[in-house]
């Protein structure tokens, strides 16, 4: 299977890193394009794949063609490649807000289009993605995309209107989690821990907590209660987090994120 990426920035690089590491396809079967020569050189070295300046070459090469440019370049790129995309090609979007019907209209011919929403933990094989195919896609086509995405994490099939929510809860959420880890590490540094060690402690605590949610089946509130000893240290931290509005901050941030996705 030949996989093409139009655009090879943060998200495409994370996906390609996972695809290669997990041997979903060989590096020789991946072709990507970027806008600038400098980024092509950098990505060639970093990922060990072929790169080109020619988006049409990528579109003609790919069995699965992933549009990995910013949402505001989608229209320009689709118009540039539409006459070389074959009806057998599966076109994959990773952009928020760009609806299947809108892309179908721009391609001006019936094509297999799959909307997805990955996230950057794909780079370490721990991505979380959703997938939604249009009416031209068979279940095998959707399975093909799921198989690629399973190479760098977990994947679930959703209805199209759920994708905006996925942006908030997993597409964008690594950024909030990194802020949380950074803030915890800053506090540990303030109390005397060396910076590198503080990142290790904070990140491993987040990783372990996430695994407990996924693997114990217990409610997050119950897991929180298991940490909070009577008259203990944790409940004091929980009291301050509630006072400072952690839950409300997360709620409002995610509402802003989903709203923005719907406006793109
Ligand atoms: N970053 C993330 O966490 C996530 C991003 N996404 C989505 O992924 C998509 C890409 O985002 P991201 O990787 O962060 O963006 P980046 O800015 O990191 O990468 C964009 C890439 O597109 C290339 N590019 C720009 N214009 C063109 C063009 N006309 N033809 C070919 N290549 C072009 C750039 O080339 P050059 O480097 O030479 O400028 C660069 O390689 C977006 O739609 C985004 O919404 C989805 C989920 C998560
Ligand atoms: O910030 C963005 O728009 C993209 C989509 C999800 C994560 N990054």
Automatic annotation (TrEMBL):
Entries under PROSITE patterns matching the protein: P5CR
Pathway, per record: Amino-acid biosynthesis; L-proline biosynthesis; L-proline from L-glutamate 5-semialdehyde: step 1/1
InterPro entries documented for this protein: 6-PGluconate_DH-like_C_sf, NAD(P)-bd_dom_sf, P5C_Rdtase_cat_N, P5CR-like_CS, P5CR_dimer, Pyrroline-COOH_reductase
Location within or outside the cell: Cytoplasm
Enzyme class: oxidoreductase
Catalysed reactions listed for this entry: L-proline + NAD(+) = (S)-1-pyrroline-5-carboxylate + NADH + 2 H(+); L-proline + NADP(+) = (S)-1-pyrroline-5-carboxylate + NADPH + 2 H(+)
Stretches assigned to the Pyrroline-5-carboxylate reductase catalytic N-terminal domain: 2-96
Gene Ontology biological-process annotations: L-proline biosynthetic process
Keyword Amino-acid biosynthesis annotated: yes
List of residues binding NADPH: 55
A Pfam family reported for this protein in Swiss-Prot or TrEMBL: F420_oxidored
Catalytic activity, EC: 1.5.1.2
Domain Pyrroline-5-carboxylate reductase dimerisation: 160-263
Keywords of this entry: Amino-acid biosynthesis, Cytoplasm, NADP, Oxidoreductase, Proline biosynthesis
One term under GO cellular component: cytoplasm
Ligand binding (NADP(+)): 6-11, 34, 68-71
Gene Ontology MF annotations: pyrroline-5-carboxylate reductase activity
Stated family: Belongs to the pyrroline-5-carboxylate reductase family.
HAMAP family listed in its UniProt record: P5C_reductase
Function: Catalyzes the reduction of 1-pyrroline-5-carboxylate (PCA) to L-proline.
Protein name stated in the entry: Pyrroline-5-carboxylate reductase
Species of the source: Blautia faecicola
